[in-house]
Structures are given as structure tokens and as C-alpha cells.
Amino acid sequence: MATATERRLAAQIAAHESWANTPDRRARTAAATQASAAAAHERALARYEAQIDPHNKLDPAERRHRAKSVHHANTARARLKEIRAQRLATEAAQLANEAAAETAALGI
Question: What is the distance between the alpha carbons of residues 82 and 74, in angstroms, rounded to a whole number?
């Protein structure tokens, strides 16, 4: 009878060989990735529902509709911050280039 260590190593070998023979890793994991993303989205909506209607007084459809609105607002807020950060980084790079050009022109 194989020991626990032997079984573990045999399983590792099988897993590595399986992945070595997988031509499209994304396709192999697509269903699990999609299920994971859907589950995360559902957990987020449930969290927003609890924030919006902690006492469950709203109709479930209305609660879900409002939770989706909060989700969209949060997503848009994050995207706005990302866009602002990109703009500020570009402006900072431009200022740094201008400063370098000025110091070079002054011979500093």
C-alpha cells in the first residue's frame, strides 16, 4: 500500500503531466474562472443589498435593482479614479521632461 507521501507525489506528477499536455490553459480553466467571477459578483450584490436594505423591508426585486445601481456607481467611481491617476501620471511625466529640458538648457 502506498504511503501518503507517495500518493501526493503521484498526484503531483499526474497534475504536472496533465498541464504539460494542455494546449490552451485559458480554455481549460474558463468555466471555473467564469463561475468564480459570477460568484464574486453575486457576493458583492448581496453585500450591497444588505447595505441598502438592512431590515429587508423592500421588495426583493427593488432591493436587487438598487444594489446593482450601487455596484455600477462604485465601478464608475473606481474607473474615474483610475483615469485621473493616469492623467496625473502623464502630467507629472511631462513636467519632469520640461524640467529636465530647462536644466539641460541652463547647463545645470
Answer: 12
All three cell numbers of 83, joined, read: 483615469
Q: Is residue 30 part of a domain?
A: no
Is-contact 106 88, C-beta < 8 A? no
Residue 36 grid cell:
468564480
**What is the Cα gyration radius of the chain?**
26
Full residue range of the structural domain in which residue 74 is found = 36-108
Read off the pLDDT of residues 44-92 as tens digits, 9 standing for 90 and up.
Answer: 999 999 999 999 999 999 999 999 999 999 999 999 999 999 999 999 9
**Within a domain: 49:** yes
pTM confidence score: 0.64
* Number of C-beta neighbours around residue 67 at 10 A: 21
Residue 60 lies in a domain: yes
CA atoms within 13 A of residue 54's CA, in its CB half-sphere: 1
The number of distinct structural domains making up the chain is 1
What element of type H or E holds 1? none
